[in-house]
Design goal:
It is globular and about 60 Å long. It is of the alpha/beta class. Helix 4 packs parallel to helix 11, helix 5 packs parallel to helix 6 and helix 5 crosses helix 10. Strand 14 and strand 15 form a beta hairpin. Helix content is 40%, strand content 16%. Bound molecules: pyridoxal-5'-phosphate. The site of pyridoxal-5'-phosphate has 13 residues, from helix 5.
């Protein structure tokens, strides 16, 4: 049979550009024969998982049985943590799973989805997959322009994504402005506030914890993840807080057993290790200072960030510097896909990892000026 298989795919799916993950450490070691590689590319926690988690999963032997498809014990813990009912919580295979579930549940080809320029790559992906219309609002100082987002709403709008803080820019929206926006959003628009970096941003006084507002706004969904500050990116677990009816709708599109048994156990153990979170936040703060100091010394501008990453402006196409860094054993993230061709996104690592990145970047920049 000779047939263009792409012509058989649904229109949204055939038009998709797959998500491009950052290069892995093994890939780079293979490619360049390097022993030591530092990865500051995927906003992971450089501390590795908490010992609590490792202990908990090492005694989890029951791998031949399906996990609890409702994630009852984890949901119970999360309900206590957030002081909500268990019915307000939906578990995802990473918070990306929830972004996808929400889009599949609420958006059809008739609908428009609003998100900001330079905001998280998965929003266009999930919108495209269901054939929704993309409405990309201009950024304000690299961040979300809430007025522009509000002004873009019409009768066909069904979903709005707000990443707070945003990846890759690290920009954030303050409590007053976000609350005011939510008060003005019409009922037919679902607003998903993506708080993947909540734990890092929450040290800022005016940063809003939107999980506290789910009883005020029926159309609000707040997503959180265990991939970042909780250090469980490999296990893929995240969750949302929303009105119970929204959770009920998401439960209809959720795959059976979307959370694996190890992830459920690990997330539960991670929630109990509050010292680990404190240490992660502290390390992030000092790493952020270390990197911003180095950028200041090098005369490079950066976008102030509330996440565990930072975008630095190299004032030239960043891809060449990215490639030189790879050869030196440092993986960071080019963000030209986000329409930021001169920026590189760097995840805050351990002090020694940050130092290696700074040293190699300085060397590359010096070489350029001496040419
Ligand atoms: C803003 C934002 N939201 C969601 C995610 C998804 O994370 P996960 O699916 O690992 O929970 C990420 C990951 O990088 C992110 O940056």
């Amino acid at each position: 049979m000779s047939c263009d298989l792409f012509s058989l795919a649904s229109p949204g799916v055939s038009g998709l550009e797959p998500y491009r993950p950052g290069k892995s450490i093994e890939e780079l070691q293979r490619e360049f024969g390097l022993d030591e590689v530092v990865k500051l590319a995927s906003n992971e926690n450089p501390l590795g998982p908490s010992q609590n988690v490792l202990d908990a999963i090492s005694v989890t032997k029951d791998l031949s049985r399906y996990p609890d498809g409702n994630g009852f014990y984890l949901k119970k813990k999360l309900a206590e943590k957030h002081n909500v009912d268990i019915g307000n919580i939906t578990l995802g295979n990473g918070s990306n799973d929830i972004l996808e579930m929400v889009t599949r549940a609420f958006v059809t080809e008739k609908h428009e989805v609003i998100y900001s320029k330079h905001s998280f790559a998965v929003y266009p992906l999930v919108t495209q997959a269901v054939g929704g219309k993309h409405v990309v609002t201009p950024a304000n100082n690299w961040g979300h322009d809430l007025d522009a987002m509000l002004a873009s709403i019409n009768d066909n709008t069904r979903l709005m994504f707000i990443a707070n803080p945003n990846n890759p820019t690290g920009t954030w929206v303050d409590r007053k402005k976000l609350r005011k926006l939510l008060e003005q959003i019409p009922d037919h628009v679902i607003v998903l506030v993506d708080e993947a970096y909540f734990e890092y941003a929450n040290i800022e006084d005016q940063y809003p914890d939107c999980s506290l507002w789910i009883n005020d706004f029926n159309n609000l969904i707040v997503t959180r993840t265990f991939s970042k500050a909780y250090g469980l990116a490999a296990l893929r677990i995240g969750y949302s807080l929303s009105h119970q009816d929204v959770a009920n709708i998401l439960n209809r599109v959720r795959q059976p057993f979307n959370n694996n048994g190890l992830a459920l156990v690990a997330a539960d153990a991670a929630l109990q290790d509050t010292d680990y979170i404190k240490n992660s936040i502290k390390l992030n703060q000092s790493g952020m200072e270390q990197l911003t100091r180095a950028f200041n010394d090098m005369g490079l501008e950066y976008i102030p960030s509330k996440g565990n990453f930072l975008c630095v402006d190299l004032e030239q196409p960043a891809i060449k510097i990215y490639e030189s860094l790879l050869k030196a054993g440092v993986i960071v993230r080019p963000v030209s896909d986000y329409d930021m061709p001169n920026h590189l996104r760097v995840t805050i690592g351990l002090e020694s990892e940050n130092n290696k990145f700074i040293k190699e970047l300085e060397k590359i920049m010096m070489k350029q000026t001496s040419l």
